[in-house]
Amino acid sequence: MGLAGPFGDAVGRPMRLAALLAVEEINAAGGIEGRSVELVAADDFGDPDSAVVVAARLVSQGVTAVVGHVYSGTTLAAAPVYGAGPDPVAVVTPSSSAPELSEAGDHVFRLCPTDLEHGAALANWVRRGLGLERGGVLYLNDAYGRGVRQSFLSRFAGTAGRAPQAFPYLGTRPAVGAYLDRLAAEKDSIQFLIVAGNRDEGVEILRQARARGLTVPVLGADGLEGIETAGSLAEGVYLTAAYLPMVETDQNQRFVGAFRTRFPEAGAPNQPAAATYDAVYLLREVLVRAGVSKTAVLRGLAATGRELPAYQGVTGVIAFDEQGDLQRSPVLIGVVRNGAVEVAARR
């Protein structure tokens, strides 16, 4: 079983640990029909070019299926490599949310909501949860940021909110001063700020916004995961999430407890970790029910939730539609309180 992701960064490291945990548990319980699972891990460093190299390596090593990659850009880059030739390799990504992935091929499956769902959940929360009407949007000018921006603006318009001003940025230390100056000049009419990007950019934007006296609520999608580590700067920030470790289901609490026991220095598992754990166990079920060939794995995954039973995982019910997306993928709204993320709502 292949595993691909950015194992050196804060988002990808827990993914690798969760995969190790799942494989250890499966092998300790007798493996798959008496055969042990071997995990072939390859670090893509969160880089699309590296992801292509990693994909070619995993294919050449004869993996049955791949769990990965973490980021949308790396999964999109690697997908054609896994799908090339007469015997495609199934790819189950725990966290790649770009809508374009739905068209990446019949061999690609994902265990998370799309950016469209995250953006829509944000819009619903802003209007119905917080009762706010006027704001601004800063978005990373890539597939992820544009996807969140588009879905947020589309849903927000449908809730009778006023069309927010939207501004693009690039880089982890974005030059957004001019945009924030413009919003600060209108601070009496600006009620919220959306950051459609990642944690590092979000922290920098927060710092610049607060320095300009913009104290309105700041919200973002799942790219802001980990922003609570920014301390008091992140207090009150809202973010969407497909998974939060404090969700009180028996299956999730067993997983969180096992993860903490096995990796006591790692902290709580994140969404890529939980979905990776689910992906490994899902593949175990498929291998038992459908067979161990690449073709059998592809057919078994595609049938999950249709011809084959849905899988009840840590992250929820896993059942795929015809595009390899989850048939149902609820989005949580989290809020940073006292350096931790709490569940604010389910959308």
How does this structure look, described?
Strands 7-6-8-9-10-13-14 form a 7-stranded mixed β-sheet, with helices on both faces. Helix 1 packs parallel to helix 9 (271-290), helix 2 (48-60) runs parallel beside helix 3 (72-83) and helix 9 crosses helix 10 (294-303). It has 347 residues and is of the alpha/beta class. The protein is 39% helix and 17% strand. It has 2 domains: 2-113 and 246-318, Response regulator (Rossmann fold, 3-Layer(aba) Sandwich), CATH 3.40.50; 116-241, Response regulator (Rossmann fold). It is elongated. Helix 3 links the parallel strand 3 and strand 4 (90-93).
Largest sheet: 7 strands, mixed
Oligomer: single chain
**Arithmetic mean of pLDDT:** 94
Output the number of helix runs: 10
CATH architecture grouping of the largest domain: 3-Layer(aba) Sandwich
Order of helices and strands: EHEHEHEEHEHEHEHEEHHHEEEE
How is the secondary structure organized here?
Layout: E1 2-5, H1 13-28, E2 40-43, H2 48-60, E3 65-67, H3 72-83, E4 90-93, E5 108-110, H4 115-129, E6 135-140, H5 143-158, E7 165-169, H6 177-185, E8 192-196, H7 199-211, E9 218-220, E10 238-241, H8 250-262, H9 271-290, H10 294-303, E11 311-313, E12 316-318, E13 332-337, E14 340-346
Parallel strand pairs: 1-2, 1-3, 3-4, 4-5, 6-7, 6-8, 8-9, 9-10
Antiparallel strand pairs: 10-13, 11-12, 13-14
Helix pairs in contact: 1-9, 2-3, 4-5, 9-10
